[in-house]
Amino acid sequence: MSQARGATSMRRLVGLFNTSLSSATDPTAAAVNSSKLIADPRKFKNLADRFKKSSESSKFRNYSKKAYSITVQRLALAKQFSLIDDILQHQKKYQEISQEGFVIRLMMLYGKAGMFEHAHKLLDEMPELNCQRTVDSLNALLSAYLHSDKFDIVGKLLEELPEKIRIDPDLISYNTVIKAYCEMGSMDSAVSVLDTLEKKGLEPDIVTFNTLLDGFFSRGRIADGEGIWEFRASDEVVW
Fold first, then answer.
1. Which residues have C-beta within 8 Å of that of residue 69, sequence separation ≥ 6?
2. Pfam families given for it (predicted)?
3. Interacting residues of 13 by C-beta distance below 8 A, sequence separation 6+
4. What are the domain boundaries of the chain?
5. Given this model, what pLDDT does residue 38 score?
C-alpha cells in the first residue's frame, strides 16, 4: 500500500468512525442505526475487517489513535466483545507490540470496553512479546480495572501485583486506588492511602487531593472535605 493510498484509507476510515459515533449521540439516529446493525450483524464484522486491513499501515498504527478508540467504543456499545478482542489481538503481529507504549494503548482500550481480564492477560504476556514492563504498564492495568468499574479489585491488585511482577508502584498507582475507593464510597480506605504514601516516601499531589475532595463533597461529607482541604493547605501542595 502506497503512502498516499494509506493516508486516503485512513481518512476514510476515521471519517466513517466519526460519523457513526456522532449518530450515536442522537437518540433517534442511534435507534435506527442500532436496529439496522442488529438486523445485519455482518456490518460489525465488516467494520472489524476494515480496521484490521487499515492496521497493515504503520502510519495508521502509530498515528490513528482516535480510530482505535472510536472503533472499540462502537463495538463495545454493540456488545461485540469478541470482535474487539479480534482487532486488538490482531495487533500482536506487528513490530509495535514490543513497544510498551503501544501495549499500554491496547490495555487501555480493553479497559474502556470493560474487558479488564483481557487487559490483565496482555500485561502477563508482555515478557513473551519481548516488551519490557514498567510502572506505566502497572498503572495502565489499574486504570483498565477502574474503567471497567471493578473498583473493589483495584486496591487488591496494588497489594499483590507489584511484588509479583517486580515493579514498584508510584504516585499515579496510589492515586488510581484512591479514585477506586472514592467511587465505591469507601472514603476511610481512600484517606488511609495517604498513610501509605507517607510510608513509601511519596508526596500527594493535586490529583490526590482533588480526588478526595470530590469524593467527600459528592457524598455530602462537607466537614470531612474541609478537613482534607486544611490538610492540603498545611502540606503546601502546589495548585
1. 109, 112
2. PPR, PPR_2
3. 50, 51, 54, 60, 64, 67
4. 1-91, 94-160, 170-239
5. 53
**Among 186, 188, 182, 192, which residue's Cα sits nearest to residue 213?**
182
DSSP letter string over 78-121? TT-HHHHHHHHHGGGGSGGGGSHHHHHHHHHHHHHTT-HHHHHH
Separation between Cα atoms, residue 190 and residue 136, nearest integer Å: 22
Cα–Cα dist 196/177, whole Å: 11
Question: What is the model's pLDDT at position 223?
Answer: 79
10-residue mean pLDDT profile of the chain (239 residues): values are 48 48 43 48 94 97 96 96 98 98 98 98 98 98 98 97 97 98 96 95 94 88 77 58
What the block records as the C-alpha cell of 153 is 479489585
| Residue among 78, 96, 85, 77 at smallest CA distance from 51 | 85
Q: At 67, which helix (H) or strand (E)?
A: helix 65-77
b/e sequence 199-231, b meaning 16+ C-beta within 10 Å: eeebebeeebbebbbebbeeeeeeebbeebeee
- Cell 507489584 belongs to 162
